[in-house]
Write a structure and sequence with these properties.
The complex is a heterodimer of chains A (289) and B (302). By secondary structure, chain A is mostly beta strands. Helices cover 0% and strands 55% of the residues of chain A. Chain A has strands at 18-21, 26-29, 34-37, 39-41, 47-52, 55-56, 64-67, 76-84, 87-90, 94-99, 111-115, 123-127, 130-137, 148-156, 159-168, 176-182, 191-197, 201-207, 215-221, 227-234, 237-243, 250-256, 262-270, 273-288. Chain B is an all-alpha fold. Among the domains of chain B are: 1-7 and 23-43 and 53-124, no CATH class; 203-302. The chains are: A mainly beta (289), B mainly alpha (302).
């Protein structure tokens, strides 16, 4: 249920609540707890409804709300509607940012960085062969520039990259998890990517001119965790494919990209939202640089 | 209000693309500069068609691919009537940005003049970058000359770096020279590393010397690691020796070693594998062995 619905009732002649202590933004480490508190004064009894990303949190109806054992998917903008007979008062937004678990690292030779303006700083780590990439940003592959979290390594010439997308925490169409060959880490770089959207559609998208328009091909809708993606670079030619089993591949897009010889390739993750971090997981990564 | 009117605009912009019919001042200010810049007569008389839609239908088009295709096909004459109606707020969105880029492709000098005088600090840096990159596709020297005339600061440095990336594709040595002219910082470092990697493909010996000549520090280590990785594509053993001899123990040596193993093994799996067996037991050795296993499964193991 969207929190806005709650704003509609209880309007009356009495005075609406007055918030005297607003919830505060915080950064916590994955696995720890995060507590938000609101204090309101009024002459009548109060009720509360906490919301994340504008959506009511079930059972979060007290003045104090604790997120237990925070995961990256708990990150985002929180607020509370304080309600009495006189109306509803919406609190200030408090953003919860979640750091990766302590000691988590990214295997060599991968490096990670946010590309473009993402809103929230992303992160990435792996545990054995499972990679987690947390990324924000409005669009991994926008019209003239891109915003996402990238886990990448050098690609000196021809090569290929295969990965299985096993998890994608957001369901909107601009939430993307997949792989990308990219000329540079500049936001308008030339690239070709294959990724799964939050709604399940497999997409291949490319930009052949720096800061130029993109072209896309939409493939089948695949269910997690069996969303395989592959990119193969041969000279200027890049072919993207998808698969449900990593064996039988279906070509999505073939495009000729004039790029520098030495480029980068790797994993991409974005939530489709600058206020939310997506948490996407990958395994079966095969790199042939 | 149109894009050209905004050249002289000050104060907050309203998100309304259309100009009030009663606002004769705005209309007058719009019209003359528009003709001066894009030199397109009769643009407002053109009829809408499937391949040349009205600006409202263009902005209402839901398919971003279609928008890109339509805009990339616009002639300068067709583009003029869109520009006249474009608002500053439009330029923050994808469609407006693509229209602006098309202008920069077709008439970069005009777009450059316009954006250089833009007072909006939020949009100006991005649009300058867009103009410079689009201009460089046609005429890199002129684009570069224009950017060098911009006021000193972050926008100028970022745009120069982006031009350097364009340059590096065909002339990495020139891109390296450009990197050396940028003020020290992230833009200069990123361009230097990118251009050096390209130069390593052209002249591995010179690129090694350039990397070695960098002052001690993180950038030098990154440059050496990158050069070693590129070199491994041509000479696995030579790249291995170069990395071990020149990179200090640490993350960049690890990165170089794994990069070299991955590339060397594709050409000489046994040679790369034998080298890995000489490593002491360490996380790096485990990761190198994992890389070999992965490549072995891809058919590179003899």
């Amino acid at each position: 249920m969207f929190c806005a619905v709650l704003l509609a009732f209880n309007a009356g002649a009495a005075t609406p609540p007055l918030i005297t202590l607003q919830p505060v933004s915080q950064i916590v480490t994955s696995g720890s707890n995060a507590t938000f508190t609101v204090v309101a004064s009024t002459g009548t009894s109060l009720s509360y409804q906490w919301c994340l990303n504008g959506v009511s949190i079930k059972g979060a109806t007290n003045s104090v709300y604790t997120v237990v054992k925070v995961q990256i998917t708990n990150a985002g903008p929180y607020y509370v509607n304080v309600i009495n007979a006189g109306g509803t008062m919406k609190s200030a937004i408090a953003t919860l940012n979640v750091n990766a678990p302590p000691g988590s690292t990214l295997a060599t030779p991968w490096v990670t960085a946010d590309i473009g303006s993402v809103g929230l700083t992303g992160s990435a780590y792996n545990v054995s062969t499972v990679y987690t990439v947390n990324g924000a940003g409005a669009n991994a592959a926008g019209a003239t520039s891109d915003n996402f979290r990238y886990v990448y390594q050098a690609m000196p010439g021809n090569g290929s990259l295969v990965a299985r997308v096993t998890g994608l925490s957001d369901t909107n169409v601009n939430a993307n998890a997949g792989i990308m060959i990219r000329e540079t880490t500049a936001t308008g770089s030339r690239y070709l990517a294959a990724f799964r959207q939050g709604n399940g559609a497999m997409i291949s998208r490319s930009r052949v001119a720096t800061s130029g328009a993109t072209t896309s091909v939409t493939g089948a809708t695949l269910a997690l965790p069996n969303c395989w993606v592959k990119l193969v670079r041969t000279g200027n030619n890049i072919v993207s494919s998808t698969s449900t089993n990593g064996t039988a591949w279906m070509a999505l897009q073939t495009n000729s990209l004039t790029m520098a010889t030495n480029v980068v390739f790797g994993l991409i993750a974005t939530s489709g939202n600058t206020n939310v971090l997506d948490s996407d997981t990958f395994d079966n990564i095969t790199v042939v640089p | 209000m149109g894009i050209v009117f905004l050249l002289k605009s000050v104060g907050p912009q309203q998100g309304n693309r259309s100009v009030s019919e009663g606002d004769n001042t705005q209309k007058a200010r719009l019209h003359t500069p528009a003709r001066l810049l894009v030199e397109m007569p009769n643009h407002s008389d053109q009829a809408s068609s499937p391949n040349n839609p009205s600006i409202d239908s263009l902005f209402n088009e839901a398919d971003p691919e279609k928008i890109g295709v339509l805009i990339s096909a616009l002639s300068e004459a067709e583009l003029a009537r869109y520009l006249e109606k474009l608002t500053l707020q439009d330029l923050a969105g994808n469609t407006g940005r693509l229209l602006f880029r098309r202008w920069a492709e077709l008439n970069p000098a005009a777009a450059a003049n316009w954006v250089a005088a833009l007072s909006d600090d939020g949009l100006r840096p991005q649009l300058i970058d867009l103009v410079a990159v689009a201009w460089s596709e046609k005429d890199l020297p002129h684009a570069l000359a224009w950017v060098k005339l911009l006021p000193e600061g972050d926008t100028k440095n970022r745009t120069l770096a982006d031009l350097g990336y364009e340059m590096a594709r065909g002339n990495p040595l020139e891109a390296l020279q450009l990197a050396s002219q940028l003020p020290a910082g992230d833009y200069a470092d990123a361009l230097l590393l990118h251009a050096l990697a390209q130069y390593a493909t052209v002249d591995s010996g010179q690129s090694q010397q350039l990397a070695l000549a960098l002052p001690p520090g993180a950038l030098r280590e990154q440059a050496l690691s990158l050069v070693a990785t590129v070199l491994a594509k041509q000479d696995g053993l030579g790249a291995a020796r170069f990395a071990v001899d020149n990179i200090a123990p640490g993350p960049e040596l690890d990165r170089a070693v794994i990069g070299v193993v991955q590339l060397w093994a594709q050409d000489n799996f046994t040679g790369a594998s034998d080298w890995v067996q000489t490593f002491p037991n360490s996380v790096m050795r485990q990761q190198a062995e994992q890389s070999l296993d992965m490549l072995g499964m891809q058919g590179f193991r003899p």
